[in-house]
Amino acid sequence: MSTSIALTAVAFLLVSDLTNAERVLGAYIFQRHGDRTAKAWPPTKLTSLGYSQEYMTGSFFHDRYISANSSYKIDGISTDIITASAPQDDVIENSGVGFLQGLYPPAGSVAEETLRNGTTVEVPLNGYQLIPMSDVQSGSGSEDNSWLQSTSSCGKAIISSNNYFDSKSYESLLSDTRMLYQSLEPLVNETFSASKLSYKNAYSIWDLLHVALIHNSTTSFPSSTILNDTVIQELLVLANEHELNLAYNSSDPIRAIAGMTLAGEVLTALNETITSGGKSKLNVQFGAYAPFLSYFGLAELSPHNVNFTGIPNYASSMAWELVTDDEGTEIPATSDIRVRFLFHNGTSIEGSTQLQTYALFGQSTIELSWAQFVDETRKISIQSQDEWCQACGNSTGICASSSGAGDNSSSSSSADSCSGRGMSLGVAGVIGAMVTLGVLVGLLVLSMIVFGLRFVPKSAVAGSHRGSDASTVPVMKTTAA
Known about the structure:
The chain is α+β, with helices and mostly antiparallel strands. The chain folds into two domains: about 300 residues, Phosphoglycerate mutase-like (Rossmann fold, 3-Layer(aba) Sandwich); about 90 residues, no CATH class. It has 14 helices and nine strands. The strands form two sheets. Strands 1, 2, 5, 6, 7, 8 and 9 form a seven-stranded mixed β-sheet that branches. Strands 3-4 form a two-stranded antiparallel ribbon. A hairpin with a 5-residue loop joins strand 3 and strand 4. The relative contact order is 0.20.
Protein backbone atom coordinates (compact mmCIF):
# COMPACT_ATOMS: atom_id res chain seq x y z
CA MET A 1 0.00 0.00 0.00
CA SER A 2 1.17 3.53 0.57
CA THR A 3 4.82 3.69 1.62
CA SER A 4 4.39 6.85 3.65
CA ILE A 5 3.42 6.62 7.30
CA ALA A 6 3.40 10.37 7.88
CA LEU A 7 0.13 12.24 8.10
CA THR A 8 -0.25 13.31 4.49
CA ALA A 9 -3.01 13.51 1.97
CA VAL A 10 -3.15 10.47 -0.29
CA ALA A 11 -3.36 11.04 -4.02
CA PHE A 12 -5.99 9.04 -5.82
CA LEU A 13 -6.93 8.40 -9.42
CA LEU A 14 -10.28 9.76 -10.43
CA VAL A 15 -12.98 7.50 -11.76
CA SER A 16 -13.80 8.56 -15.28
CA ASP A 17 -17.17 10.22 -15.79
CA LEU A 18 -19.65 7.88 -17.33
CA THR A 19 -20.80 8.82 -20.80
CA ASN A 20 -23.98 6.77 -20.80
CA ALA A 21 -27.24 7.19 -18.91
CA GLU A 22 -26.27 4.84 -16.12
CA ARG A 23 -28.31 4.09 -13.02
CA VAL A 24 -26.79 2.87 -9.75
CA LEU A 25 -29.21 0.32 -8.24
CA GLY A 26 -27.38 -0.41 -5.01
CA ALA A 27 -24.00 -0.75 -3.34
CA TYR A 28 -22.11 -2.60 -0.63
CA ILE A 29 -19.29 -0.84 1.26
CA PHE A 30 -16.67 -2.48 3.48
CA GLN A 31 -14.96 0.24 5.48
CA ARG A 32 -11.79 0.03 7.58
CA HIS A 33 -11.70 1.91 10.87
CA GLY A 34 -9.83 5.18 11.26
CA ASP A 35 -6.58 6.10 13.00
CA ARG A 36 -6.23 4.55 16.46
CA THR A 37 -3.80 4.09 19.31
CA ALA A 38 -1.25 1.27 19.16
CA LYS A 39 -2.35 -2.35 19.55
CA ALA A 40 0.60 -2.99 21.83
CA TRP A 41 -1.01 -0.74 24.44
CA PRO A 42 -4.60 -2.02 24.83
CA PRO A 43 -7.30 -0.96 25.11
CA THR A 44 -6.96 0.67 21.72
CA LYS A 45 -8.97 3.81 21.13
CA LEU A 46 -10.09 5.68 18.06
CA THR A 47 -8.25 9.01 17.87
CA SER A 48 -9.69 12.39 16.91
CA LEU A 49 -7.80 12.01 13.65
CA GLY A 50 -9.43 8.61 13.09
CA TYR A 51 -12.89 9.97 13.78
CA SER A 52 -12.28 12.81 11.33
CA GLN A 53 -11.08 10.35 8.69
CA GLU A 54 -14.27 8.33 8.99
CA TYR A 55 -16.48 11.41 8.96
CA MET A 56 -14.83 12.67 5.80
CA THR A 57 -15.11 9.27 4.14
CA GLY A 58 -18.78 9.08 5.08
CA SER A 59 -19.23 12.57 3.61
CA PHE A 60 -17.59 11.38 0.39
CA PHE A 61 -20.04 8.48 0.08
CA HIS A 62 -22.91 10.85 0.88
CA ASP A 63 -21.84 12.98 -2.07
CA ARG A 64 -21.53 9.90 -4.27
CA TYR A 65 -24.60 7.84 -3.36
CA ILE A 66 -27.10 10.16 -1.64
CA SER A 67 -26.62 13.72 -2.89
CA ALA A 68 -29.30 14.73 -5.38
CA ASN A 69 -26.65 16.24 -7.66
CA SER A 70 -24.52 13.10 -7.94
CA SER A 71 -24.44 11.10 -11.18
CA TYR A 72 -23.86 8.03 -8.96
CA LYS A 73 -26.88 8.63 -6.71
CA ILE A 74 -28.55 5.34 -5.81
CA ASP A 75 -32.12 5.22 -7.06
CA GLY A 76 -34.54 5.94 -4.22
CA ILE A 77 -31.92 6.00 -1.47
CA SER A 78 -33.00 7.09 2.03
CA THR A 79 -32.24 6.32 5.67
CA ASP A 80 -34.86 3.58 5.69
CA ILE A 81 -32.97 1.39 3.21
CA ILE A 82 -29.48 1.38 4.69
CA THR A 83 -28.04 -1.55 6.61
CA ALA A 84 -25.01 -0.77 8.79
CA SER A 85 -23.10 -3.19 11.00
CA ALA A 86 -19.90 -3.30 13.04
CA PRO A 87 -18.13 -5.55 15.52
CA GLN A 88 -18.52 -4.61 19.15
CA ASP A 89 -15.16 -2.91 19.30
CA ASP A 90 -14.39 0.60 20.54
CA VAL A 91 -12.27 1.48 17.51
CA ILE A 92 -14.41 -0.09 14.79
CA GLU A 93 -17.82 0.77 16.21
CA ASN A 94 -16.91 4.38 16.88
CA SER A 95 -15.46 4.58 13.38
CA GLY A 96 -18.89 3.54 12.16
CA VAL A 97 -20.50 6.36 14.10
CA GLY A 98 -18.20 8.91 12.49
CA PHE A 99 -18.76 7.45 9.02
CA LEU A 100 -22.55 7.48 9.39
CA GLN A 101 -22.49 11.06 10.63
CA GLY A 102 -20.75 12.00 7.40
CA LEU A 103 -23.01 9.76 5.30
CA TYR A 104 -26.15 11.38 6.71
CA PRO A 105 -25.20 14.81 8.10
CA PRO A 106 -27.61 17.02 10.09
CA ALA A 107 -30.74 17.77 8.10
CA GLY A 108 -30.23 21.50 8.58
CA SER A 109 -33.74 22.20 9.81
CA VAL A 110 -34.60 21.95 13.48
CA ALA A 111 -37.86 20.18 14.16
CA GLU A 112 -39.96 20.99 17.19
CA GLU A 113 -42.28 18.86 19.28
CA THR A 114 -44.82 20.25 21.72
CA LEU A 115 -45.49 18.11 24.77
CA ARG A 116 -48.83 17.78 26.52
CA ASN A 117 -47.76 20.21 29.22
CA GLY A 118 -46.99 22.84 26.60
CA THR A 119 -43.21 22.44 26.68
CA THR A 120 -41.54 22.79 23.28
CA VAL A 121 -38.61 20.47 22.58
CA GLU A 122 -36.21 21.08 19.70
CA VAL A 123 -34.24 18.32 17.98
CA PRO A 124 -30.57 18.74 19.05
CA LEU A 125 -27.48 19.04 16.87
CA ASN A 126 -29.25 20.90 14.09
CA GLY A 127 -31.38 17.94 13.12
CA TYR A 128 -28.72 15.21 13.37
CA GLN A 129 -29.97 11.97 11.80
CA LEU A 130 -29.56 8.71 13.71
CA ILE A 131 -28.71 5.62 11.63
CA PRO A 132 -29.12 2.28 13.47
CA MET A 133 -26.01 0.09 13.53
CA SER A 134 -26.06 -3.62 14.30
CA ASP A 135 -23.50 -5.48 16.39
CA VAL A 136 -23.23 -8.45 18.75
CA GLN A 137 -21.85 -9.30 22.16
CA SER A 138 -19.70 -12.18 20.96
CA GLY A 139 -16.30 -11.58 19.42
CA SER A 140 -14.74 -8.67 21.24
CA GLY A 141 -11.40 -6.90 21.26
CA SER A 142 -10.06 -7.39 17.73
CA GLU A 143 -8.20 -4.10 17.83
CA ASP A 144 -6.66 -5.13 21.15
CA ASN A 145 -5.22 -8.30 19.60
CA SER A 146 -2.37 -8.37 17.12
CA TRP A 147 -3.14 -11.89 15.89
CA LEU A 148 -4.94 -11.58 12.56
CA GLN A 149 -6.99 -14.80 12.92
CA SER A 150 -7.98 -14.07 16.52
CA THR A 151 -11.60 -13.31 15.71
CA SER A 152 -12.31 -15.90 13.03
CA SER A 153 -13.12 -18.82 15.40
CA CYS A 154 -12.46 -21.00 12.36
CA GLY A 155 -10.36 -23.98 13.43
CA LYS A 156 -8.83 -24.80 10.06
CA ALA A 157 -8.10 -21.14 9.30
CA ILE A 158 -6.18 -20.81 12.55
CA ILE A 159 -4.15 -23.92 11.75
CA SER A 160 -3.53 -22.68 8.21
CA SER A 161 -2.24 -19.32 9.38
CA ASN A 162 0.00 -20.99 11.93
CA ASN A 163 1.48 -23.07 9.13
CA TYR A 164 3.15 -19.93 7.83
CA PHE A 165 5.45 -20.00 10.86
CA ASP A 166 6.75 -23.38 9.76
CA SER A 167 7.50 -22.23 6.21
CA LYS A 168 10.95 -21.72 4.75
CA SER A 169 10.13 -18.15 3.72
CA TYR A 170 9.19 -17.26 7.28
CA GLU A 171 12.29 -18.89 8.76
CA SER A 172 14.46 -17.07 6.25
CA LEU A 173 12.98 -13.67 7.04
CA LEU A 174 13.13 -14.38 10.77
CA SER A 175 16.85 -14.99 10.48
CA ASP A 176 17.69 -12.27 7.96
CA THR A 177 15.91 -9.49 9.86
CA ARG A 178 17.03 -10.31 13.38
CA MET A 179 19.60 -7.52 13.55
CA LEU A 180 17.13 -4.99 12.15
CA TYR A 181 14.57 -5.66 14.84
CA GLN A 182 17.15 -5.82 17.61
CA SER A 183 18.39 -2.37 16.56
CA LEU A 184 14.99 -0.94 17.50
CA GLU A 185 15.41 -1.83 21.16
CA PRO A 186 16.10 1.77 22.35
CA LEU A 187 12.80 2.90 20.83
CA VAL A 188 10.49 0.11 21.98
CA ASN A 189 12.12 -1.35 25.11
CA GLU A 190 9.22 -0.17 27.28
CA THR A 191 6.85 -2.31 25.24
CA PHE A 192 8.82 -5.22 23.77
CA SER A 193 11.44 -7.31 25.49
CA ALA A 194 14.54 -8.26 23.49
CA SER A 195 13.14 -11.76 22.91
CA LYS A 196 10.05 -10.27 21.21
CA LEU A 197 12.02 -8.08 18.83
CA SER A 198 11.86 -10.21 15.70
CA TYR A 199 9.95 -10.72 12.47
CA LYS A 200 7.55 -12.90 14.45
CA ASN A 201 6.01 -9.67 15.78
CA ALA A 202 6.53 -7.66 12.59
CA TYR A 203 3.08 -6.08 12.58
CA SER A 204 2.92 -5.21 16.28
CA ILE A 205 6.34 -3.55 16.16
CA TRP A 206 5.60 -1.59 13.00
CA ASP A 207 2.20 -0.58 14.34
CA LEU A 208 3.70 0.82 17.56
CA LEU A 209 6.26 2.90 15.66
CA HIS A 210 3.70 3.96 13.05
CA VAL A 211 1.39 5.35 15.74
CA ALA A 212 4.29 7.03 17.52
CA LEU A 213 5.44 8.78 14.34
CA ILE A 214 1.94 10.21 13.89
CA HIS A 215 1.12 11.24 17.45
CA ASN A 216 4.23 11.48 19.65
CA SER A 217 6.22 14.66 19.97
CA THR A 218 9.93 14.73 19.11
CA THR A 219 10.91 14.89 22.78
CA SER A 220 8.78 11.91 23.80
CA PHE A 221 9.87 9.84 20.81
CA PRO A 222 13.50 10.62 19.92
CA SER A 223 13.90 8.52 16.79
CA SER A 224 17.31 10.08 16.06
CA THR A 225 19.10 8.12 13.35
CA ILE A 226 17.63 4.73 14.27
CA LEU A 227 14.32 5.19 12.49
CA ASN A 228 15.27 6.81 9.22
CA ASP A 229 13.18 6.65 6.05
CA THR A 230 14.90 3.51 4.84
CA VAL A 231 14.22 1.64 8.08
CA ILE A 232 10.61 2.82 8.19
CA GLN A 233 10.03 1.57 4.67
CA GLU A 234 11.66 -1.78 5.40
CA LEU A 235 9.55 -2.30 8.52
CA LEU A 236 6.37 -1.53 6.56
CA VAL A 237 7.30 -3.97 3.78
CA LEU A 238 7.99 -6.68 6.36
CA ALA A 239 4.71 -6.01 8.18
CA ASN A 240 2.86 -6.24 4.86
CA GLU A 241 4.56 -9.53 4.01
CA HIS A 242 3.80 -10.91 7.46
CA GLU A 243 0.09 -10.05 7.47
CA LEU A 244 -0.62 -11.00 3.86
CA ASN A 245 0.81 -14.47 4.48
CA LEU A 246 -1.42 -14.87 7.53
CA ALA A 247 -4.50 -13.74 5.62
CA TYR A 248 -4.16 -15.54 2.30
CA ASN A 249 -2.43 -18.49 0.69
CA SER A 250 -3.31 -19.56 -2.85
CA SER A 251 -2.74 -23.24 -2.09
CA ASP A 252 -4.76 -23.18 1.15
CA PRO A 253 -7.88 -21.02 0.61
CA ILE A 254 -9.33 -21.57 4.10
CA ARG A 255 -6.70 -19.17 5.42
CA ALA A 256 -8.76 -16.42 3.78
CA ILE A 257 -11.92 -17.23 5.76
CA ALA A 258 -12.55 -13.54 6.47
CA GLY A 259 -12.57 -12.71 2.77
CA MET A 260 -14.64 -15.79 1.93
CA THR A 261 -17.34 -14.77 4.40
CA LEU A 262 -17.26 -11.16 3.20
CA ALA A 263 -17.65 -12.30 -0.42
CA GLY A 264 -20.73 -14.30 0.58
CA GLU A 265 -22.22 -11.34 2.40
CA VAL A 266 -21.65 -9.04 -0.56
CA LEU A 267 -23.29 -11.49 -2.98
CA THR A 268 -26.28 -12.05 -0.70
CA ALA A 269 -26.80 -8.32 -0.08
CA LEU A 270 -26.57 -7.36 -3.75
CA ASN A 271 -28.87 -10.23 -4.66
CA GLU A 272 -31.39 -8.90 -2.15
CA THR A 273 -31.29 -5.52 -3.88
CA ILE A 274 -32.34 -7.26 -7.08
CA THR A 275 -34.88 -9.75 -5.72
CA SER A 276 -36.54 -7.25 -3.39
CA GLY A 277 -37.16 -4.87 -6.25
CA GLY A 278 -34.74 -2.34 -4.81
CA LYS A 279 -36.08 -2.24 -1.26
CA SER A 280 -32.55 -2.89 -0.04
CA LYS A 281 -30.19 -0.24 -1.43
CA LEU A 282 -27.03 0.29 0.57
CA ASN A 283 -25.10 -1.94 2.96
CA VAL A 284 -22.17 -0.63 5.00
CA GLN A 285 -19.98 -2.91 7.11
CA PHE A 286 -17.11 -1.71 9.28
CA GLY A 287 -14.08 -3.79 10.15
CA ALA A 288 -10.32 -4.21 10.34
CA TYR A 289 -7.80 -4.97 7.60
CA ALA A 290 -7.96 -8.78 7.57
CA PRO A 291 -11.00 -9.04 5.23
CA PHE A 292 -9.28 -6.63 2.83
CA LEU A 293 -6.15 -8.77 2.54
CA SER A 294 -8.13 -12.01 2.28
CA TYR A 295 -10.46 -10.66 -0.38
CA PHE A 296 -7.59 -9.14 -2.37
CA GLY A 297 -6.10 -12.61 -2.73
CA LEU A 298 -9.35 -14.48 -3.37
CA ALA A 299 -10.53 -12.01 -6.02
CA GLU A 300 -7.15 -12.22 -7.79
CA LEU A 301 -6.33 -8.59 -7.11
CA SER A 302 -3.01 -9.10 -5.29
CA PRO A 303 -1.43 -11.39 -7.94
CA HIS A 304 -2.00 -8.74 -10.62
CA ASN A 305 -1.46 -5.47 -8.77
CA VAL A 306 1.20 -4.69 -6.18
CA ASN A 307 -1.16 -2.15 -4.60
CA PHE A 308 -3.13 -5.08 -3.19
CA THR A 309 -0.24 -6.84 -1.46
CA GLY A 310 -0.08 -4.72 1.69
CA ILE A 311 -2.12 -3.55 4.65
CA PRO A 312 -4.68 -0.94 3.58
CA ASN A 313 -4.41 2.44 5.25
CA TYR A 314 -6.80 3.62 7.92
CA ALA A 315 -10.29 4.51 6.61
CA SER A 316 -9.80 2.50 3.41
CA SER A 317 -12.92 1.50 1.49
CA MET A 318 -14.02 -1.33 -0.77
CA ALA A 319 -17.28 -0.91 -2.68
CA TRP A 320 -19.31 -3.10 -5.01
CA GLU A 321 -21.88 -1.30 -7.16
CA LEU A 322 -24.87 -2.63 -9.08
CA VAL A 323 -25.33 -0.58 -12.25
CA THR A 324 -27.50 -0.68 -15.34
CA ASP A 325 -28.08 1.27 -18.56
CA ASP A 326 -31.78 0.47 -18.43
CA GLU A 327 -33.71 3.75 -18.51
CA GLY A 328 -36.71 2.52 -16.53
CA THR A 329 -37.45 3.17 -12.88
CA GLU A 330 -37.65 -0.43 -11.67
CA ILE A 331 -35.03 -3.13 -11.19
CA PRO A 332 -34.31 -4.44 -14.70
CA ALA A 333 -33.74 -8.02 -15.78
CA THR A 334 -30.50 -9.46 -14.44
CA SER A 335 -29.13 -9.61 -17.97
CA ASP A 336 -29.10 -5.80 -17.91
CA ILE A 337 -27.25 -5.50 -14.58
CA ARG A 338 -23.48 -5.19 -14.11
CA VAL A 339 -21.19 -5.13 -11.09
CA ARG A 340 -18.06 -3.05 -10.62
CA PHE A 341 -15.53 -3.13 -7.79
CA LEU A 342 -13.92 0.00 -6.40
CA PHE A 343 -11.15 0.50 -3.86
CA HIS A 344 -9.81 3.55 -2.08
CA ASN A 345 -6.63 3.26 -0.02
CA GLY A 346 -7.20 5.48 2.99
CA THR A 347 -8.70 8.92 3.17
CA SER A 348 -7.61 12.49 2.49
CA ILE A 349 -7.38 15.24 5.10
CA GLU A 350 -8.77 17.63 2.49
CA GLY A 351 -11.80 15.43 1.96
CA SER A 352 -11.09 15.06 -1.77
CA THR A 353 -11.21 11.27 -1.74
CA GLN A 354 -12.04 9.31 -4.85
CA LEU A 355 -12.51 5.65 -5.67
CA GLN A 356 -10.65 3.73 -8.35
CA THR A 357 -12.20 0.85 -10.26
CA TYR A 358 -10.34 -2.46 -10.61
CA ALA A 359 -11.00 -5.65 -12.53
CA LEU A 360 -11.95 -8.66 -10.38
CA PHE A 361 -11.08 -12.34 -10.79
CA GLY A 362 -8.29 -11.72 -13.30
CA GLN A 363 -10.75 -10.43 -15.91
CA SER A 364 -9.79 -7.90 -18.56
CA THR A 365 -12.95 -5.81 -18.12
CA ILE A 366 -13.72 -3.48 -15.20
CA GLU A 367 -17.41 -4.33 -15.08
CA LEU A 368 -18.79 -7.87 -14.90
CA SER A 369 -22.24 -9.02 -15.90
CA TRP A 370 -24.36 -10.01 -12.90
CA ALA A 371 -24.31 -13.67 -13.95
CA GLN A 372 -20.51 -13.65 -14.25
CA PHE A 373 -20.10 -11.93 -10.88
CA VAL A 374 -22.36 -14.53 -9.27
CA ASP A 375 -20.46 -17.45 -10.82
CA GLU A 376 -17.03 -16.11 -9.86
CA THR A 377 -18.04 -15.07 -6.35
CA ARG A 378 -19.60 -18.45 -5.59
CA LYS A 379 -16.20 -20.04 -6.21
CA ILE A 380 -14.56 -18.06 -3.41
CA SER A 381 -17.36 -17.43 -0.93
CA ILE A 382 -18.98 -18.97 2.12
CA GLN A 383 -22.75 -18.50 1.89
CA SER A 384 -24.30 -20.58 4.65
CA GLN A 385 -23.69 -21.71 8.19
CA ASP A 386 -23.28 -25.34 7.11
CA GLU A 387 -20.69 -24.35 4.52
CA TRP A 388 -18.75 -22.40 7.14
CA CYS A 389 -18.86 -25.24 9.67
CA GLN A 390 -17.73 -27.80 7.10
CA ALA A 391 -14.95 -25.58 5.73
CA CYS A 392 -13.65 -24.71 9.20
CA GLY A 393 -14.00 -28.20 10.65
CA ASN A 394 -15.87 -26.78 13.65
CA SER A 395 -18.29 -28.99 15.56
CA THR A 396 -19.09 -26.91 18.64
CA GLY A 397 -20.98 -23.65 19.20
CA ILE A 398 -23.20 -22.81 16.25
CA CYS A 399 -21.80 -25.85 14.44
CA ALA A 400 -23.01 -28.32 17.07
CA SER A 401 -26.38 -28.62 15.35
CA SER A 402 -24.97 -28.35 11.83
CA SER A 403 -25.59 -31.28 9.52
CA GLY A 404 -21.91 -31.15 8.54
CA ALA A 405 -22.88 -32.33 5.11
CA GLY A 406 -22.19 -29.00 3.49
CA ASP A 407 -25.79 -28.50 2.39
CA ASN A 408 -25.56 -25.93 -0.39
CA SER A 409 -29.23 -25.85 -1.26
CA SER A 410 -29.76 -22.35 0.11
CA SER A 411 -26.78 -20.83 -1.58
CA SER A 412 -27.46 -22.68 -4.82
CA SER A 413 -31.03 -21.47 -4.89
CA SER A 414 -29.88 -17.97 -4.12
CA ALA A 415 -27.39 -18.00 -6.95
CA ASP A 416 -29.94 -19.49 -9.35
CA SER A 417 -32.31 -16.65 -8.56
CA CYS A 418 -29.41 -14.24 -9.00
CA SER A 419 -28.74 -15.43 -12.52
CA GLY A 420 -32.42 -15.22 -13.42
CA ARG A 421 -32.36 -18.29 -15.64
CA GLY A 422 -35.71 -18.95 -17.27
CA MET A 423 -37.76 -16.92 -14.81
CA SER A 424 -39.77 -13.78 -15.22
CA LEU A 425 -38.65 -10.91 -13.03
CA GLY A 426 -41.84 -11.11 -10.98
CA VAL A 427 -41.50 -14.83 -10.22
CA ALA A 428 -37.77 -14.51 -9.63
CA GLY A 429 -38.44 -11.63 -7.27
CA VAL A 430 -40.92 -13.58 -5.12
CA ILE A 431 -38.88 -16.76 -5.02
CA GLY A 432 -35.63 -14.88 -4.66
CA ALA A 433 -36.95 -12.84 -1.76
CA MET A 434 -37.96 -15.99 0.13
CA VAL A 435 -34.65 -17.71 -0.61
CA THR A 436 -32.71 -14.60 0.30
CA LEU A 437 -34.50 -14.43 3.65
CA GLY A 438 -33.39 -17.96 4.43
CA VAL A 439 -29.83 -17.27 3.31
CA LEU A 440 -29.71 -14.03 5.29
CA VAL A 441 -30.75 -15.79 8.49
CA GLY A 442 -27.99 -18.37 8.09
CA LEU A 443 -25.44 -15.83 6.93
CA LEU A 444 -26.34 -13.48 9.79
CA VAL A 445 -25.52 -16.17 12.33
CA LEU A 446 -22.27 -16.83 10.47
CA SER A 447 -21.47 -13.10 10.45
CA MET A 448 -21.97 -12.95 14.19
CA ILE A 449 -19.21 -15.49 14.60
CA VAL A 450 -16.73 -14.21 12.02
CA PHE A 451 -17.19 -10.43 12.29
CA GLY A 452 -18.90 -10.14 15.67
CA LEU A 453 -22.26 -8.49 15.03
CA ARG A 454 -25.41 -8.04 17.09
CA PHE A 455 -28.73 -6.44 16.42
CA VAL A 456 -30.00 -3.43 18.30
CA PRO A 457 -33.50 -1.96 18.03
CA LYS A 458 -33.93 0.58 15.21
CA SER A 459 -34.77 3.15 17.83
CA ALA A 460 -31.41 2.70 19.48
CA VAL A 461 -28.97 5.56 19.24
CA ALA A 462 -26.48 4.89 16.44
CA GLY A 463 -23.03 3.90 17.51
CA SER A 464 -23.49 3.51 21.24
CA HIS A 465 -20.02 3.23 22.70
CA ARG A 466 -19.64 -0.34 23.81
CA GLY A 467 -17.09 -3.09 23.95
CA SER A 468 -14.67 -4.45 21.34
CA ASP A 469 -14.35 -7.44 18.78
CA ALA A 470 -12.13 -10.57 19.45
CA SER A 471 -13.43 -14.03 20.31
CA THR A 472 -11.60 -16.32 22.66
CA VAL A 473 -9.40 -18.71 20.70
CA PRO A 474 -6.68 -21.23 21.49
CA VAL A 475 -3.29 -19.82 22.42
CA MET A 476 -1.49 -18.95 19.21
CA LYS A 477 2.16 -19.22 18.26
CA THR A 478 2.13 -15.50 17.63
CA THR A 479 1.02 -14.13 20.98
CA ALA A 480 2.01 -10.49 20.84
CA ALA A 481 4.15 -8.87 23.43
